Amino acid sequence: MAAERVRHFACFSDYDKELVCHWEVTAQTNCSKEFLLYYSQELFPQINTCVPENRKDSSRCTCTIWPDYFVSGLTYNLTLQFNGTDMWNYSVTPALVVKPRAPQNLAIEKVENGNFILSWEESYSPPSMLSGQPVIYEVKYWRKQHPTEVSVKAINYQAKSFEITASSLRRGYDYVASVRCNYTDYPANWSEWSEEVEFHYDYQVTAEDVLQMAVPVSCILIMAVSVTCYFCFTKYVSYCS
Questions:
Q1: Rounded to 5 degrees, what are φ and ψ at 188?
Q2: Is the pLDDT of residue 58 over 90?
Q3: Residue 1 lies inside a defined structural domain of this protein
Q4: Range of the domain at 79
Q5: Is 87 buried (19+), middle (13-18) or exposed (0-12) by CB count in 10 A?
Q6: Do 211 and 192 lie in a common domain?
Q7: Residues contacting 23, CB < 8 A, separation 6+
């Protein structure tokens, strides 16, 4: 019966500061009163206790473990206890469940050619294990008024910027952009999407726009002049005869 109260138990690590375990529970569950999570490193007998908290945004219990260090071979043995009864045993290696922190300090700038340069910073710095490791990114952007029409671009190289071309945008609209990352040596999970940045694509008449308008207008004028000349000519011929 107790096992039915716990669903989708999983752990993720930012591989820098924390190992977070969470599980779904039934409504009205008081996580800190009903559950305890015991953990120990595989090679050391000392058992520690984590008191879970209720997540505000969902029916989840969350426990955050703060390891003193991270190394590739570090493994934790976990025991989840419900109202004093052991109900779940789990083994987790943080290096195998890395969920990196999202890129930070997202910014966007319009450049002379009319495109937009989206830039960001990595969330890790020395001596973090992930600092300097190979990382790939995904950028997504969309019209603010149409959030379901999303463009997603993969960046498969070490870069911290992306050029959004004006040709992929519609003039006169507000846009929203975000970015996430994945470390190729620790590929288990993508990060969450970063904080969003907004920008506006102004309607500016370009030389291409002028040319696109000039061609059909010129054609219409030529046709109008031709028709006028034709009628004038036929009238002149009729008058002469």
A1: -60, -40
A2: no
A3: no
A4: 7-96
A5: middle
A6: no
A7: 6, 7, 8, 9, 10, 60, 61, 80
Three-state SS at 11: strand
The residue ranking higher by pLDDT, 120 or 222, is 120
In terms of domains, do 133 and 174 share one? yes
Alpha helices in the chain (DSSP H): 31-34, 207-240
Please report the DSSP string for 29-83 in residue order: --HHHHEEEEEEETT----EEE--EE-TTSSEEEEEE--S---TT--EEEEEEET
Contact 229, 235 (CB under 8 A): no
In a domain, 226, yes or no: yes
The pLDDT of residue 215 is above 90: no
Please work out, in degrees rounded to the nearest 5, the angle formed at the alpha carbon of residue 21 by the alpha carbons of 99 and 51: 140
- For residues 139 and 160, what is the distance between their CA atoms, to the nearest angstrom? 11
State whether 70 and 20 are in the same domain.
yes
CATH number at residue 72: 2.60.40.10
Same domain, 210 and 140: no
pTM over 0.85: no
